[in-house]
Specification:
This protein has helices at 40-49, 75-85, 109-113; strands at 3-11, 14-17, 22-25, 28-36, 64-71, 87-88, 104-106. The chain is of the alpha+beta class.
């Protein structure tokens, strides 16, 4: 099973406009859920460093990266867990996974860090 990760962002109010979709982002803290295999550190660092080349929905966020948490839980497990305690941005970052409403969530960090979502 592939590991999952959470990247926390501080975001201003803005619209994320990708090639295929538009998402309204209100100011606040957002958590992006992703998956990684052997290159987990590399993938997470890419999100924290905010790449110039836009490949995934998360690359289009006009936000400041805060920190990341790597989990033994899968991307889908994390997303389903966050759906219960956070507000999902429906369709964001989940085009390859129909099991979750989205992979970006507006949420208070302490709510997530103190939840069973990040504990095994």
């Amino acid at each position: 099973m592939r590991s999952g990760y959470l990247v926390f962002f501080q975001c201003p109010t803005h619209f994320v406009i990708t090639r295929a979709a538009r998402f309204a982002i209100e100011g606040g803290v957002y958590i992006y859920v992703g998956s990684c295999g052997n290159s987990c550190t590399k993938r997470v660092l890419r999100h924290l460093e905010r790449p110039r080349v836009k490949k995934w929905h998360v690359d289009y966020l006009e936000c400041t990266s805060l920190y990341a948490v790597i989990s033994r839980k899968s991307e889908n497990e994390l997303a389903r867990c966050l759906e219960e305690i956070c507000i999902p941005i429906v369709g964001f970052g989940s085009t390859d996974s129909r099991q979750a409403l989205g992979h970006l969530f507006k949420c208070e960090p302490t709510r997530v860090l103190n939840s069973d979502c990040v504990r095994r």
